[in-house]
Design goal:
This protein is mostly beta strands. It has one domain: Immunoglobulin-like, CATH 2.60.40.790. It is about 10% helix and about 20% strand. A 3-stranded antiparallel sheet has the order 1-2-3, with no helix packed on it. Strands 4-5 form a two-stranded antiparallel ribbon. Strand 2 and strand 3 form a beta hairpin. The protein starts with a strand and ends in a 31-residue tail after the last helix.
Length: about 130
């Protein structure tokens, strides 16, 4: 496997039939090969590319050619929206309790609500129930 600034090349043998696989393509724009990561696993190869220049710039696709590659998959567990910066991402992991606390708690204060003063009417269906056998 070779990652260059403007292209990617792979050649290897894999699968139960030990078939030779080879591919190469040009990137949509340049990447930084030294900062890109690659991991070879039992059933797949994961590549994380670092964009050159403006890393926040949106790419409409990975390859220069406008074709759908059946062997290319997006790992949505690692997807990062361009809307959120790295600083904003830490706030996105906030739980409901943390969010309520950051908004001043329930009712505009940090005190927990008390339900002791609520008068609950009795339900006539709950009175004088027979014992279970």
């Amino acid at each position: 496997m070779k990652i260059e600034a403007d292209k990617f090349y792979f050649k290897g043998i894999g699968g139960s039939d030990k078939k030779l696989h080879e591919l190469s393509f040009e990137f949509y724009k340049e990447v930084e090969p030294d900062k890109s990561l690659k991991t070879v696993r039992d059933r797949n190869i994961e590549v994380v590319l670092k964009k050159k220049d403006d890393s926040s710039a949106y790419w409409p696709r990975l390859t220069k050619d406008k074709i759908k590659n059946h062997w290319l998959k997006i790992d949505f567990n690692r997807w990062q929206d361009d809307e959120y910066s790295d600083d904003d991402a830490s706030g996105m992991n906030m739980g409901l309790e943390d969010m309520v606390r950051s908004m001043g708690g329930l009712g505009g204060s940090d005190a927990k609500p008390s339900f002791d003063d609520i008068d609950v009417p009795s339900d006539s269906d709950d009175e004088d129930l027979p014992d279970l056998e």
